[in-house]
Design brief:
Elements: E1 2-3, E2 18-22, H1 26-36, E3 42-46, H2 49-58, E4 63-67, H3 75-83, E5 93-97, H4 103-111, E6 116-119, H5 124-202, H6 209-243, E7 251-254, H7 255-265, E8 274-280, E9 285-288, H8 290-306, E10 312-320, E11 324-331, H9 361-371, E12 375-379, E13 386-393, E14 405-409
Parallel strand pairs: 1-3, 2-3, 2-4, 4-5, 5-6, 8-10, 12-14
Antiparallel strand pairs: 7-9, 10-11, 11-13, 12-13
Helix pairs in contact: 2-3, 5-6, 6-7, 7-8, 8-9
Length: 410
Amino acid sequence: MTVSEDDSRGHARSRQPKVLVVDDLPANLKLVEDVLEPLECQVVLASSGRKALSLVERDEFAVLLLDVQMPEMNGYELAQQLRSDPKAAAVPIMFLTATSRDDRNVLRGYGSGAVDFLFKPVDARILRSKVQVFLDLYASQRRLAEAYAELKATQVQLIQSAKMASLGELVAGIAHEINNPLAFALSHLETVKRSLGKAEGELDISVSPVARAEWDRATARLQEIGFGLDRIRELVLKLRVFSRLDEGEWKAVSIRESVESVLMILQHRLVSGISVRTDFGTPDEIECYPGLLNQALLNVLANAIEALPATGTVTVQTGGTADAYEICIADTGPGIAPLLMDRVFEPFFTTKPPGQGTGLGLSITYSIMQKHGGMLALDCPPEGGTKVRLTLPIRRGPEFNGSGGKQLSS
């Protein structure tokens, strides 16, 4: 497969490795193109050193084939500039030249950073064989890099899961410790209310206005204490929902309870000017891995909140059909740049400043959706904002081994 220097950008997402051929003569470019056609690679052609530098800046190549004698910038000068560029410093360079077979030319070629030097006319079989070696090397390096990235992502994901489990244990412990004195206080509050109710009936009608005012004030304060204790009880329930130490079990859960418990954990991030709107549809209850779903919700909601400047809104909508359940989390932030959309699911990719994000939120969430046989979709409309949709199958047991998927749109 061959593309010109002008349309190579349109093929940037091709999975085939790319070979860059640089020569100022169209006939030579055509010749190399024909020789390399049988190989499983994408051949990109450039007619000058300047155009070659531009292509290398925006794309990745397995090997570079450079002519030596070119106007404006010869092959040696081009090679030296490429070697000074960190992005291209490790890319193999082969010289294809019609210059004399002088040892000085060869030494100059190797001195400028080349790994091979072929004289024209080049034997087609030799050229294909040498390029194939570099294609194989490139493929091996990519597999090694991918394996290392996967290993590192798995390691960090295990650490993240361990942190979530520790957080769950901590939250569950706090909820338990609060629950005991809370139950004690609620019980005695009711006793005090009943006692005061009985005593109020015995009060002399002629009691002084001051005493009556103090009585009314005390009973009003007791009512407010009751409201406060009820609020604490509600928070304890949400803490227990979030902690879910049974995260490895497949069970039915309330999506409303899960979302509200996660929002409670993130409450400290909701600064003045940032609001959260919820719209819970039906059905409310679905079967899933509760702990993992809470982790996915925490990742996406935290991203949505952090995407907002001083003001903005995060909207959570839920609901489902007979086959699928969808949780949609949208924010009114600036959105994601189109050039970055292809990378947001990559492990360790983040747009946050160094030290402020691991770049694993969406990657882990995608893995969680895969485990559920569901899908993670990301939408960034031109008018701004980001919408994340978590889609889970309804009434499918844990034995369902769906491949899941991800979708990007803008």
